[in-house]
Specification:
Blueprint: H1 2-43, H2 51-70, H3 86-93
Amino acid sequence: MEERAEVLPTLGRVVAFAALLVVCSTAALALLAPLAAKVISSTGQPLKLDVFPNLIAVFVATALMLRSIDRRPWAAIDLGKDAAQPRSFLRGFV
């Protein structure tokens, strides 16, 4: 019975994150689509529209989950100030 009590909050967080991700992705796409259309029309270069809105959506959904639901800092997912070091970026790139 204790396992079930632990699974339900986790499942709720997953569902909440997925819902936030859909909402944020839709909003980011709606906001960036006119800008992308303008860039495409002025430069003639094709632009993949789903990458940047999805990246923004994941960032915003994660921030909302951390701040409002989990009430934890960025450091809880290893994205705190300590992670923003050139050595960390280089190691991640390699």
